[in-house]
Amino acid sequence: MSGLVPAASPASIDGPEHVTRPTAYDAILLASFGGPEGQDDVIPFLRNVTRGRGIPEERLEEVAHHYRAFGGVSPINDQNRELKAALEAELARRGIDLPVIWGNRNWDPYLRDALVEADQAGHRTLLAIATSAYSSYSSCRQYREDFALALSETGLEGTVTIDKVRQFFDHPGFVQPFIEGVAEGLAEIERRLPGIDLVTEARVLFSTHSIPTGDADKSGPDFRGFGAGGAYAAQHLAVSEVVMTESGRGVPWELVYQSRSGPPTQPWLEPDVNERIEQLAADGVRAIVIVPVGFVSDHLEVKWDLDTEAAETAEEHGVLAVRVPTPGTHSAYVAGLVDLIEERRDARPVAERKSVTSLGPWYDVCRPGCCENARLGFRPAVAGIAP
User: For labelling alongside 209, which of 121, 134, 151, 374 has CA 20 to 30 A away?
Assistant: First the structure.
């Protein structure tokens, strides 16, 4: 393919940090992780997720019981159906005539099916929204690799272009639901524990998916120099600080991690949310607010790892735990995603783009060398400058 950015629109193909030429998109590609829709889907789905990693069947069975506890149905698919409908309604409200086509990385409807659907409808200039707000291999580059793979599998390379909205971790539409959630969570603690001193007896734990430290260190472009934890950790910390400034009332807070799935010998980001709850209980903390700041919806890793495991850990140690909602289909979040569509379509100047931390607004086109997989290296990807 010609140009620096594979499968890109003319405005993006030369790789600007922020596009300066408007683009007439044909459709929105809503891209998500995917999840099983029944008990028979669970193991095949987990094989899809772990393909090429050599994960033994017994380990898949261990993870499968999380899904089986919910009837083998991941909440994520219904949540994406709701998000798709909400996006369509907001686009219509603004008079934007763009269809939303939904495709998953790991389960039906697959990304390749979404691309075929788009092509058959004559939609060949696509703008993708991935249901992940932060920078890392698994939350950004892997989506971009799967876009490239889907184009190859469908033979649509050179016919369909795919751009992608910037990472939206610090867009106010994404952050506002957490600001409201923390305020409400602290108020709930006061209602349930009258007389509690929030500053000395409560904590706010911002939780996100743990990833291998090697991947974390490589997240974001090298020239930003984020150091240990890379852009992934820096972005979460920056967002959490904004939330606490707006609604934290001086309560101590920290970033914790969940859902670790690697072997014990591989370093992953820490501390683990459950281990931290145990430590806080030993230090006399009576209540915690758990903020799933790394997630856009209440999917299985929220429902199981936080609402089940972390909640049980807190109860075992006599700590009141309140979990705040994810953005889901919150009106501010949905409106914010459409803001991102408009800013990319119209090539809005950086000064007019919304962000609430000093790290953003993030890049329209991923920079060279961004978010390398520490184990696999770089594979073909769209929506970014080739490394």
Answer: 151
